[in-house]
Each structure stands twice: as structure tokens, then as C-alpha cells.
Amino acid sequence: MQISDPTPAGHPALNERTQHLLKFLVERYIRDGQPVGSRTLSRDAGLDLSSATVRNVMADLEELGYLRAPHTSAGRVPTARGYRFFIDTLLRVKPLDPREIEVLRRRIDQPAQSGTELARSVSDLLSGVTRLAGIVMLPRRQTMTLRQVEFLPLSERRVLAILVLNGQEVQNRIIQTRRAYDAAELQRAANYLNAQFGGQDIQQVRKTLFEELRETRDHLDRLMQTVVEMAEQTFESTPESDDYVVAGQTHLMQYADLSDLDKLRQLFEAFNQKSDLLHLFDQCLHADGVQIFVGEESGCGVLEGCSVVTAPYSTGDQVLGVLGIIGPTRMAYDRVIPVVDVTARLLAEVLDGQRD
Amino acid sequence: MQISDPTPAGHPALNERTQHLLKFLVERYIRDGQPVGSRTLSRDAGLDLSSATVRNVMADLEELGYLRAPHTSAGRVPTARGYRFFIDTLLRVKPLDPREIEVLRRRIDQPAQSGTELARSVSDLLSGVTRLAGIVMLPRRQTMTLRQVEFLPLSERRVLAILVLNGQEVQNRIIQTRRAYDAAELQRAANYLNAQFGGQDIQQVRKTLFEELRETRDHLDRLMQTVVEMAEQTFESTPESDDYVVAGQTHLMQYADLSDLDKLRQLFEAFNQKSDLLHLFDQCLHADGVQIFVGEESGCGVLEGCSVVTAPYSTGDQVLGVLGIIGPTRMAYDRVIPVVDVTARLLAEVLDGQRD
DNA sequence: TCTTAGCACTCCTCACCTCAGAGTGCCAAT
DNA sequence: ATTGGCACTCTGAGGTGAGGAGTGCTAAGA
Question: Of A14, B1, B258, B293, which has the most beta carbons under 10 Å away?
């Protein structure tokens, strides 16, 4: 597994003892949620140092911006920069138990009717296992190839268009037509479109149809006129923009770090808004493996106090989407990271298996 | 509009003055969210009574269970029973401005691709207008009639089944088959099913198929064997159970009444759980017009401190579903009730228009 | 030069108190 | 039946003081 750092920043060299203390402090803080004082470190960190020495080290770490003290006489707490260093340099991730992986695999490899359904079940899984909010971004539409298109007459002026994309995803569209069409006509139009455009990228199809055919519209025979009218509406509406599925948002309400009701509201609204998070996840699409955003590193104000752990999933060479979790910055990274990583791999595996 | 009371309970006769005071108190409490004291009523209720007199009345109302005092020296607050009486007897609903209705109508009457999409947009609308959580229950599946079924071969062993129900709703299902089928075979099977079962209730179709055909399975010709294999999977999976769409849950975080984070979490989990709320909404399916549940009247523990306002929507004689809002018991009923009422009517209107 | 004990200092938390304000219940007078 | 008056209760804000945790600094020791 690789953990890439979205905002690489120079870290001055720290001697081993300092690193060890920082690591212990962050781990302890993640465990207990309380500022950690010099006495605790001196006693428990296993270095046989006096608290005074530890204090000196902590003062240095504070100087460097890795720690901060909530107030004069509380212990210290990691800053975003401290978490960053911890994640990049100090963290040793526990690999997942093979049995646990097997459980995950079974839960992912369920027959699903649609991409959305699969995404929902995977984000449920993520949130269930980590007790955080799970997010799965749906496969990006841009890279969709048209497998098949069919038209069914519904009534006088209404036709159902069915798009099969990538061999799995099925989309329906109801089209209002200018005149009535019979089934045979529609069948011919579909045949033409399938023969001409099957296997092509859907963006490409749209472009070709609109550019090439529009200019010659007046000279078209009856078949081609049907084709054009159908295709216009079938491919015109930008097939619903990228989207994601969130599960387990309620888990976030349990963390004292996020107990500010107003903050929480803003966060939940960001989930609904989607645009900010989509932007963030877009950035992870082509990352190589797990990526972590600590606090406001994401550039997203509402994510203050939160971290995001993402991983892209892909079949073969094609990146399909991104999944991950959102939780308080104070989360058990050593556990969450492998879960996200493995889930992405398993999802890719399953999707790969579903392609024939 | 009719407002039916789900838990009719005897109310002793109150004289006009008492009613007026109760009405004023509830209205004031809804407006300000503060316990209302005798001085306030004496001054503002417009009855020219001394605060001492008002106190006597309030003591009576408390005796009767309509009011309660949070503590000795706070004013009084309506109880669930008090709200109940207010809603049933005292409330005068403001009819909606026709321009406002027009705005609602336009927002509802948008082309939607599916029932879910329409439900989502309507519950968005409800939550936007009322600043509460909007809920739209999807049309009940039981009453769905099969309009058309089609099969598309996707690959060797996978067939896409398309169900058109009620002339609007389209459902897809991917079927794993035991052997490969070609397009012509599938076409014939679809033709048979359409001829035989088109226009019938889908429950009925399922029953007929399974009962009649199963027993004669061994004697079937090739066509009928195809039909049975297809139909089994197409109609077998209980077409996804009743469901609803919630929007604007975040609005609920703004109300001080619900500021208890843990309560709120339970409420949100109930939204996800769905079963409790579905049960509640089921009860409203055949109510005649707007129904209101105050606090725990709903029998749903998590709804403590919340009220639910619902209305069924129907085309012609057929009840399609229920919509409504959930908010703090302390909500502006005079505004919310007509919004829910009108929205249900408009949705029915729009759905009626979409049937050919 | 690094480490450590010691000490003065800071700041939070909690319990406790007080006091003003709001509202009540009750009683006696109208 | 209504009202003014009065004693009473409870909340909430503000203030105080003790206890505790943790710090920085300094000077002595390895």
C-alpha cells in the first residue's frame, strides 16, 4: 500500500527519540482524546526520561508546529502538521486479518442491480466497519462506453430509451417525441445506433451525432430523422453528473470533537451539497493508492476537525472511482487506512469479475 | 382540508376565555420558544384580565393536562395534549397565497425520470419551504400494474429485464440465466408475457406465473421454458420494498428543542432505519387529508419532541403514497399544514397528468 | 552538553455561594 | 368571579476559592 501525501511539505529531521515521543503522544491522544502531558509520556512512553526532559522535547515540537497546548496547563495535542508527520513517517499500519478480508469480500460481492446500489452497499460497509461516514463515488460517466441502446414505445408520444453502458450500468430515459413512432421504426433506429456507435465512448457518440448529423438534417431519410430525434434526447441530457453515496453520517455525531452542533450541521449540508466533496474526491481519482487529508488540508472549510481517507478503485488500467471515509481527525488511522485500501481493491476485483 | 385526529380523545368543554388564553399561549410559545407567564398573557392576550386571574386559568389548564411548568417559576408550556387540542379546535389555518401555490406547482411539475427522482424533488421542496425535514413515501408497489416487459441480452448468461409499470415507473433487473439466449427467443418470451399479463396487477402476475406454470414445468415447450426462467427472476425479487425519501434533515439541527445530540442521532438513525417511519406512514395512507402526530402520539420513541404532518396523495380513486414533514413539536402548524396539504394535491395532479 | 530535580506560575475545573428576576400560589378584599 | 398583595420558589449569571494538572525556567549533576 502506498500512502501519498497530497500536500508534500518539508519536514525538518527529528532525532529518533523525538520521533518516538511524538508517535506515542499522537497515538495516546487518538486513544484517549485528552491532551497528553509530560508526566504521562515520561511514565508510559518507555524511554526512561524525566518529565522535565520530555517537556523540553515537547517545547521543541511545539516550536516546529507539530503540537500545540490548548492552554497553559493542559498537556499537548497534535496539530494538523503533527498528524501529517505522524501519518507520513511514524505510522505503522496493521495489515488486515485475512479472515476479515474474506468477510469484506463476501459483503461486497453481492449481486447488485445498479452502480448506485453497489455503491450504497459498499459505503454502508465502510461506515459499518470503521464507525465513520463512508463515501463511495460512483464510476465517472466520462469514461463510459455505449454498449447498447434500445427504444420502447410507452404511449403515443412517449418513448423509453434504455442505455446499457460498460456492460453493467443501465440507464433509463423517458423521451417526449414530436410524433408517434411504432415499434418497428424504433427498432430500426436502435439497430442503426448500435451498429454505428456500439462500443464507443459516450462523449464521442454525442459529439459525432450532434456535429455530423445536425448539419445534414434536412437531407435525411425517414429512418435517419427518427434516429436523430431519438438520439438527441437520449444523449443530450448530460447523463446525471458525477455523484456519490454517503452512509453512516450519524456516526459522526458521536465524536466529541465534532460536538459543535453548528459545525456538524455545516458538515452534513456539505454532504448534501456534494460539489465541494466531489471536487475533493476528483483530486484523488488518479492518486496511486490511499490518500489522506488532515483537517483543512483539503481546502474545504467545513472539514475542519475532520480527516478524509480515500482510495481510487479501478479495473485493469481504467480508474472507475474513489471511495473512502470521513471522520474526526482524531481517528484510528492504523485501522482505517487498511480498511479503505482493501475495500477499494475488493471492489475493483468484484467489478472486474462482473465484466465478462 | 380536513385534519383528522389519529388518537381521538375526549376533551372537556372549555369556556371561550380559557380557549382564547390557551390559543394565545400556544401561539406565543411557538413563536418565541419561551415558557409563557401570566403577566405576558394578561398584557398581550387582549382580554383585559389581571395576571392573577390568568394564573387561575393556567392552573386549571395545567390540572387538565394541557400545560405544564418546566419549574416553579417559569411560565407554562403546552403539553402534547395541549398541542392536540390546539390543533384540533383552536387552530385557524392560513390558506396559501395562490401565487405561492403556483410556485409550488411549477417546482413539482418538472419532467422526472423516475418515481424516486420525483419523490426526491418533492421532498426537497417540502423541506425548503417549511425549513423542516420533508418526507415523500414512494408509490406503494402493491398496486402496480404491469404495462410492459422487455428482455435485452447483455452477454452470454446475462439478460437485462425492463419492467414498465403504471406507465411511468421503469425498473431494471439484471438476470443471470442458466443458458445463453438469443435476442429472438427473448423477444418471443417478452411478447408472450406482454400479451398474457399486460395491464394486470403485478402481484397477480407473480401469483399466476408461479402457481400455474410451476406445476406444469416439465411439459413445457422451449418457448415456455424461456418464459418461466425469465419471469421467475424478473418478478420474484419482491420489487424493492416500500421506501421513502427524506430531505432537509439538517434543518432539524437548528431547533433548540432538539439540541440534545444523542436524541438527534437517534432520530437520524430512525430516518435511515426506515422501518418505524414506514409503519407510521402506512397508517396515514388511507387517512382522508392531513394528519398530525404530536410528540409520542406516533408511538415512536425517537419522535419525542417532534411532530409529523402527513397527507396522502392519490390519482383518481387510487391512493399512491404519503408525503409530509417532520419537525419539532414547536412548529408553525398554521403554515406547515396548508403546505403539506397543497403539495399532496399538486403531486396528485401532476401524476394524474402524466398518465396518458 | 545533555539531563534532571525543584519551584514558581498559570490556567482550568468544580463546587459553592449570592443575588436579581421572573413567575407562582394563595389569601383577603372588592 | 376578579383582583392586589405577598411570601415563596426556582433559575441563571456572576463571583470566589481550593485543588490539580501541567508548564517554563533555573541551577545542579553526569
Answer: B293
